[in-house]
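Discussion board: Methods & Data

I've been asked by a reviewer to show the raw model output for two of the constructs in my manuscript, not just the figures. I'm not sure how much to include, so I'm pasting the format here to get opinions. Each protein appears as its amino acid sequence followed by a line of discrete structure tokens. Is this the kind of thing reviewers expect to see in a supplement, or should I convert it first? Here is construct A:
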Amino acid sequence: MATAAQIKKGYLDYVLTHDEKPKSVYSFVKKLKLSEADFYAYYASFESIEKMIWFELTAETINEIQQQEVWVQYSSREKMLSFFYSYVELLKSQRSFVIYSLKNHGKRLSTPDVLSGAKPIFESFAEQIINEGLESGELADRKFFSKRYKDALWVQYAFILNFWITDDSEGFEKTDEAIEKGIQVTFDLFQRSPIDNLFEYGKFLAQNGKLKEKMGF
């Protein structure tokens, strides 16, 4: 009986050797000496294999960093930095697949459909970190906008992946710099800033407009 792992391994071997997906499920399973029923018992399509790989890579990273003793001491910003540094480190062992998968799916300005396997678990993870930051006061709780914080982090996720696959610097040091700068800027926007104070001051003046009249201004 075939296993999901056998099929996944066979698929990876094929696409990394031929730089394209198999012509059909029938021709693919024939080479593995399996039946189509064996394939469809685990996967609906070749794309679903890739979505599962992305899901597993993301889940593995989240699980590993949450097991670290220092995890509970991290701020929300540090937790997200830890995720991306650890994620890229894990992806190094699958770099050929990552490059193949991202370059063969979707347009440059859109998020590849294969990442839809990773998106739900990443957004759930990001939302948990954001909520912790909102509760602790680390992040600014802004009406309407707070709910979009996780969307900004997903944009960072896609950007960092696309940056990494074209990074030719030694030890991918430019990717580390992109992570550092990207997450720092993003979390700076999430935190309370002078513009928040300006809006509150404007709101105060609007609510207390009669104060000006009483003081003769």
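Construct B, same format:
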Amino acid sequence: MQQALATMLTMQNAMNARVHPDWQDQGFAWYRALWIECAELLDHYGYKWWKAQHPDMPQVQMEVVDIWHFGLSAMLVENRDIPSLAVQLDAQIHAHDIAEPDLRLATENLARDTLASRAFPLAAFLDVMHAAGLTADTLYATYVGKNVLNFFRQDHGYQEGTYRKEWQGREDNEHLHELLANLDNTSPTFPDDLYAALARRYREAA
């Protein structure tokens, strides 16, 4: 897990630097992006008792991974030493006991603690992760996938507003989930294979 954490932290740093080379000194409100993702997660899971709703768990899990992106970013602002941060996170993750197994309540706790601290409450996030059915291994695989998608978006005009997020009537996150199920995430070429697969689908939808 420690190596996986170091890899994810390194990938997150690279992604943020792609958006802004000096990203750690810009004062970006990572906490704000994080709690808003909590609302998006609940929207995919369902909270409206006045209408029929069915949880979209693949999208719920993607939202958890989006939260993790912002959480990693917030922690990298506070501690820029990736190896030491990976050791620290590994110890906290292994010591964590689940406090709230209900996904809705765990998500609300995460949003509340994020707003109160304006930081990333790792313990509350771990409750959400477990409640959403993600293990450390699936978090890692899905994170790598979403990181590749984020690079793909940037390479295709996301910041400039020219990127098409919906392909053939479906959001790119849905295409990503489908591709992840059909690629070997243990392969050393996994990120490149995924990027190429995304590019093919994007071209086909043009």
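Answer (T.O., handling editor elsewhere):
This is acceptable in a supplement if you add a one-line summary per construct. For B, something like: DSSP finds nine helices and two strands in the chain.
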